[in-house]
Amino acid sequence: MRVLAALRNSDHRLTRRMAAWDSPWARQLLSPVEEAAEHTKLWWAAAVAMSVGGGWRGCKAAAAGISGMAVSELLSNGVAKKLVERRRPPKEWIPHDDVEDRPDSSSFPSGHTAAAVAFTAAVVPSWPWAGAACAVPTVLVAFERVHSGAHYPSDVAAVATIGIAAATLVRKAPASLPAAWDGHESPAGDRRVAG
């Protein structure tokens, strides 16, 4: 119990500290990041850019990213938010107006962060440089969700696991499909004759 209480207190302290951080950099950068991440617009734009500019590798990376993001949205918003009811950080902890725009749903987990982590983690195996580029806005999205008062740091940290799990599922799924779906065998299990 002491360990849980200490973790909760640390989570609360870090929430207040991150929300109170005020600088011209934070004001100019975090608000556009939040707007871009809303409804996964940022990741759809990244997928289009990869598809257009990256040839076959870009298309493969974009498809993996979108698939990972979709799975993470299902797991975080469709499952975890329904199972865990957690209040958002108290408004009095957040010393700026961003707190007025946060949703009323459960604080756990951060769907924005889950989508960001899953997209990035799914892109990396197909196109490491693009994945590294996506990591920068991913970190900014995670930071913004706490800074705005929408989430506790633990909501963001825990959801990284969901994002990575979603990316892993997307990566492993093709290998686990039946060979018939892959075109190597017919549904009856007979080898197809090349023609």
Automatic annotation (TrEMBL):
Its main location: membrane. It is a multi-pass membrane protein. Residues 64-171 form the Phosphatidic acid phosphatase type 2/haloperoxidase domain. It holds the Pfam family PAP2. Signal peptide: none annotated. Keywords: Cell membrane, Hydrolase, Membrane, Transmembrane, Transmembrane helix. This is Phosphatase PAP2 family protein. It comes from Streptomyces caledonius.
